[in-house]
Amino acid sequence: MSNTTMSIAIPDSMRTYVAARVESGAYGNMSEYFRELVRKDQSEQAKARLRTLIEEGLSSGPAQPLTDSDNQELLGIARDEIA
């Protein structure tokens, strides 16, 4: 995985907050702080997608027995989206 530099503009109050989080030892540097924010957002988006899929499933009608083919398809989807 390669890293790319990105510049962002934030208000001084936010920069002070981030700097304090780094100085507290919670993060090694500001980049680590922002990477963690992105990872948390990615996780929240994945959870929201899963909730949506569960709601769709629950509202789709009576359950049908799963076949071996269904199980293989679901495992494939889970491995691609969760990994």
Automatic annotation (TrEMBL):
Transmembrane segments: none annotated. InterPro entries: ParD, ParD_sf, Ribbon_hlx_hlx. The keyword Manganese does not apply. It comes from the Bacteria. Signal peptide: none annotated. GO terms for biological process: regulation of DNA-templated transcription. Keywords: Toxin-antitoxin system. Residues 59-83 are annotated as: Disordered. Belongs to the ParD antitoxin family. This is Transcriptional regulator, CopG/Arc/MetJ family. It comes from Rhodoferax antarcticus ANT.BR. The lineage of its organism: Bacteria, Pseudomonadati, Pseudomonadota, Betaproteobacteria, Burkholderiales.
